[in-house]
């Protein structure tokens, strides 16, 4: 069941905010959202909600939260041209969120984190963008010097999400017996090759940007050494890699 934007927003509000716990109204909204997320094009409605918010529309936080969550989980199933559309719109959403006068504080919100995870997923899955993903994110999120602290935190949130997206892609392929090992191997190696850049950004942040220290440490934690399912190849940072960053 495909919902129009206004109906989708209303269901989000009733489900998370307005409906009494266990009420008939809340259950109905929940059921509508469950059916809605099963529609292959539901992500377009959710992305539209995020885009309209970035365009200046006042959108309830509940609708933004569910929209960001729905878009994030849709990315791996999309064709690359749709993944690129999602990536570009999510970047614009984050850019808008760092614009002067938009944010009430420098704190990263739950919606911000979900958008960053959706962006991490699109970065991982867009093969044609593997060679330029790092520069793309830096230009988009660090380009506004007035919002550099928030932009840096958002960039770190995206980086923190990349290992989980890689692990999920490998796990899904292993679970369903998909014959995509060469593609996944190239994917993992592409991001593994950026590990020294990641550790350098983390160390620079810890030295010079205390407000973003927590986000930097989460990146360090998430990029810890691991073995990718199906491929049985190593990924992440060893303790000795910390020395290479100095």
TrEMBL record:
<dbReference type="InterPro" id="IPR011989">
    <property type="entry name" value="ARM-like"/>
</dbReference>
<protein>
    <recommendedName>
        <fullName>Exportin-1/Importin-beta-like domain-containing protein</fullName>
    </recommendedName>
</protein>
<dbReference type="InterPro" id="IPR016024">
    <property type="entry name" value="ARM-type_fold"/>
</dbReference>
């Amino acid at each position: 069941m495909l919902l129009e934007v206004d109906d989708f927003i209303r269901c989000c509000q009733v489900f998370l905010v307005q409906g009494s716990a266990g009420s008939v109204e809340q259950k109905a909204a929940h059921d509508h959202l469950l059916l809605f997320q099963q529609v292959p094009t539901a992500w377009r409605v959710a992305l539209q909600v995020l885009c309209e918010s970035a365009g200046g529309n006042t959108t309830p936080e509940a609708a933004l939260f569910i929209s960001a969550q729905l878009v994030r989980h849709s990315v791996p199933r999309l064709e690359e041209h749709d993944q690129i559309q999602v990536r570009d719109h999510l970047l614009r959403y984050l850019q808008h969120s760092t614009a002067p006068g938009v944010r009430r504080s420098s704190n990263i919100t739950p919606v911000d984190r979900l958008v960053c995870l959706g962006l991490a997923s699109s970065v991982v899955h867009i093969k044609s963008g593997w060679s330029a993903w790092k520069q793309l994110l830096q230009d988009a999120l660090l380009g506004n010097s007035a919002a550099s602290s928030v932009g840096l935190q958002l960039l770190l949130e995206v980086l923190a999400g990349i290992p989980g997206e890689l692990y999920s892609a490998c796990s899904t392929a292993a679970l369903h017996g998909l014959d995509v090992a060469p593609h996944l191997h190239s994917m993992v190696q592409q991001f593994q090759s950026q590990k020294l850049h990641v550790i350098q950004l983390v160390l620079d942040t810890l030295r010079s940007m205390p407000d973003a220290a927590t986000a930097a440490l989460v990146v360090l934690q998430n990029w810890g050494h691991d073995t990718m399912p199906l491929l049985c190849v190593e990924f992440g940072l060893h303790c000795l890699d910390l020395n290479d960053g100095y």
